[in-house]
Design goal:
Elements: H1 5-11, E1 32-36, H2 43-47, E2 71-82, E3 91-99, E4 113-117, H3 122-131, E5 142-146, H4 165-172, H5 181-187, H6 194-203, H7 209-218, H8 223-229, H9 237-243, E6 250-253, E7 264-272, H10 278-284, E8 289-294, E9 310-316, H11 322-336, E10 346-352, H12 361-369, E11 375-380, H13 393-399, H14 401-408, E12 413-419, H15 422-439, H16 444-456, E13 460-464
Parallel strand pairs: 9-10, 9-12, 10-11, 12-13
Antiparallel strand pairs: 1-5, 2-3, 2-8, 3-7, 4-6, 4-8
Helix pairs in contact: 1-8, 3-4, 5-6, 13-15, 14-15, 15-16
GO molecular function, one term: [methionine synthase] reductase (NADPH) activity
GO biological process, one term: homocysteine metabolic process
InterPro entries: CysJ-like_FAD-binding, FAD-bd_FR_type, Flavoprot_Pyr_Nucl_cyt_Rdtase, FNR_nucleotide-bd, NADPH_Cyt_P450_Rdtase_alpha, Riboflavin_synthase-like_b-brl
C-alpha cells in the first residue's frame, strides 16, 4: 500500500539515503530560460479566462475526434453514490451529470469516452510559487525562450507563447508527474545545503536505484514532496517546464444512453480518500463547468447493431460499471421501442469491495428482474459473507466456468472487460484461459491463442486505465 506522502515527508531522514560511495550522474544541458516582460500584469491578458492549454495553437489532445476539440460543458448534477469511510471503503464513488443541450454535434454511443482537461489544485500552485520564490511575480507576464536553436530542442507545445508563472503551474504542467533521475540530479544544482545536494545526487545515481525505487516509485514522492524535504532547493520555473510532463486530459467512460436523453450524460468515478488524482480532485470541488472533448470511438461500445447479439460484461471495481450502465440503458430503450429481432443475452460479472460499492446496484437488480440483464454475478472482496456472492471475480468465473464458456464460444457472443489497471485485465485473461482449457480440454497455450483470435475479431474487448 502506498504511504501517505505527507506522513512520509515528515518522517524521511535524508541522511539515511546517502551512500558513502556513488557515481554522480552527468548533467544534461539546459534548454529553456524564463524572461519577464514587465513588472505588472497585462490587463487584456487578465481578461482572457481560457485554460492555459487553450491558448496553445495546434496543440493535440489524445484520441480527440476533431482538431477543434475542447468544449466548456455545464455540470448539471453532482451525486455521491458511496462515501469513503477509511476502513471498508477507501474510495468514494461519485456521479456527475453534464448538460450538452446547447452544444452542437455532441453525439455519442454507450461505451464512448470523453477526455476532461483539469487544472492543478490551487493550494499546490501556491506552494510551488512559494518554493520557487515567485509569489510576487505569480501573475506577471513572461516568456520562455530556447537557450540555443537546434534540431534537438523544441519549444514545448503545451506552454503559451505569453504566459504567467501561475498559469504554467496551474494549467500546463503535471505537478504530480513521476520524477526522473535526470531531473533529480539537476535539482541538486539548485540546493545550498550539502545534505540536500548529496541526497538528490545519491538517489539519482546508479548505485542509489533502490532508494529511488522506494522514494519515487513505491511511495510516489512528487516534486512538491522533494521541495519540502529539501528546503534549500530552489529551482527556476524553466527547469520544471523542461522536466515535468504536460498536464494531460483524463479519460472517463460515458455511463448513459442517448436514447434516454441526448441532452445530458453522466460519468462515474472513484476518488481515493488520500492523495486523490488531479482530475478527480478538481471534479470533487464541484466546478460549474469543465473542459472536455469526445474521444475517438472504438469497439468497446453497444449500439443497435449489438442488440441481437449476446454480451458477457466483466467489471472490476464499482466505477468500472460505468460503460455497462449505458449499455443496459440502451438495451432497455431498444426493447421498449420494439427494435427488430430478439434481444440477445447479457451477463454481468462485477467485483467490488462490498454490495454498497457496486454503483447503481438497485438499478441492476431491476434490469435483472425485467430480463434486460439476464445473469448478474457479483463478488465482494471485503465482505465475502454477503449472500450469494464470491470474494473475488476469478472465483465467480471459475465457479460458473461451464455456462460461461458455453456462452463465450457462441459466434454471436462478445466479451467486454473493464478494469482499473492492465495488471487486473491480464489476471482476468489468465482466468478465462484456464476456464477455456478446463471446459474444452485444451492446453493453456491453445486457450491463449483463442483469446488472441478473439481480440483480432473484436470479440474480446477491453477498457482499462491506470
Amino acid at each position: 500500500m502506498v504511504a501517505d506522502n505527507v506522513e512520509l515527508e515528515k518522517a524521511l531522514d535524508i541522511n539515511k539515503y546517502i551512500l558513502s560511495k556513488y557515481t554522480v550522474s552527468k548533467l544534461l544541458d539546459r534548454t529553456l530560460e524564463l524572461r519577464f516582460l514587465d513588472n505588472s500584469p497585462d490587463l487584456d491578458w487578465n481578461l482572457d479566462c481560457r485554460h492555459g492549454q487553450e491558448k496553445c495553437l495546434d496543440l493535440q489532445y489524445p484520441f480527440a475526434r476533431s482538431p477543434s476539440t475542447l468544449t466548456r460543458v455545464n455540470v448539471k448534477d453532482f451525486k455521491i453514490l458511496l462515501e469513503a469511510d477509511g476502513q471498508l471503503h477507501t474510495k468514494s464513488i461519485t456521479e456527475i451529470k453534464f448538460d450538452v443541450k446547447k452544444i452542437r454535434d455532441f453525439t455519442w454511443q454507450p461505451g464512448n469516452t470523453i477526455g476532461i482537461l483539469p487544472h492543478n489544485d490551487e493550494s499546490d500552485v501556491e506552494d510551488f510559487l512559494k518554493y520557487l520564490n515567485l509569489e510576487n511575480k505569480a501573475d506577471n507576464l513572461c516568456v520562455f525562450q530556447l537557450m540555443q536553436e537546434s534540431k534537438k530542442t523544441k519549444y514545448p507545445s503545451h506552454i503559451p507563447n505569453r504566459t504567467t508563472p501561475r498559469e504554467v503551474l496551474r494549467d500546463c504542467l503535471n505537478l504530480r508527474g513521476v520524477l526522473k533521475k535526470q531531473f533529480l540530479r539537476t535539482l541538486a544544482e539548485y540546493c545550498s545545503d550539502i545534505s540536500d545536494v548529496s541526497f538528490l545526487k545519491c538517489i539519482s545515481s546508479k548505485e542509489g536505484s533502490a532508494y529511488y525505487n522506494e522514494i519515487i516509485l513505491q511511495n510516489a514522492f512528487t516534486l512538491l514532496d522533494i521541495l519540502k524535504t529539501c528546503p534549500s532547493c530552489q529551482p527556476p520555473l524553466s527547469l520544471l517546464v523542461e522536466h515535468l510532463p504536460r498536464l494531460l486530459p483524463r479519460e472517463y467512460s460515458i455511463a448513459s444512453s442517448p436514447l434516454i436523453n441526448s441532452n445530458e450524460f453522466s460519468i462515474i468515478f472513484s476518488i481515493f480518500s488520500t492523495n486523490p488524482g488531479i482530475t478527480t480532485k478538481m471534479l470533487q470541488s464541484k466546478p460549474a463547468q469543465v473542459l472536455m472533448y469526445l474521444r475517438q470511438p472504438n469497439k468497446f461500445c453497444y449500439t443497435e447493431d449489438d442488440f441481437q447479439n449476446d454480451q458477457i460484461l466483466i467489471a472490476v471495481g464499482g466505477a468500472a460499471l460505468a460503460p455497462y450502465l449505458g449499455f443496459l440503458q440502451h438495451k432497455q430503450c431498444l426493447i421498449e421501442k420494439g427494435a427488430s429481432g430478439v434481444a440477445g443475452k447479457t451477463w454481468l460479472f462485477v467485483g467490488g469491495v462490498s454490495p454498497q460499492a457496486i454503483a447503481h446496484r438497485s438499478q441492476l437488480m431491476q434490469w435483472l428482474s425485467k430480463n434486460v440483464l439476464n445473469k448478474f454475478i457479483e463478488s465482494h472482496s471485503r465482505s465475502p459473507s454477503a449472500t450469494n456472492s464470491y470474494q473475488y471475480i476469478h472465483e465467480a468465473l471459475n465457479a460458473n466456468s461451464k455456462v460461461f464458456i458455453d456462452l463465450l464460444l457462441q459466434p454471436q457472443t462478445s466479451i467486454y472487460i473493464c478494469a482499473d489497471g492492465s495488471q487486473i485485465s491480464a489476471a482476468l485473461e489468465a482466468t478465462i484461459c484456464k476456464c477455456l482449457s478446463k471446459e474444452i480440454n485444451i492446453e493453456q497455450s491453445e486457450a491463449q491463442n483463442i483469446i488472441k483470435d478473439y481480440r483480432r475479431q473484436n470479440k474480446y474487448r477491453e477498457d482499462f486505465w491506470c
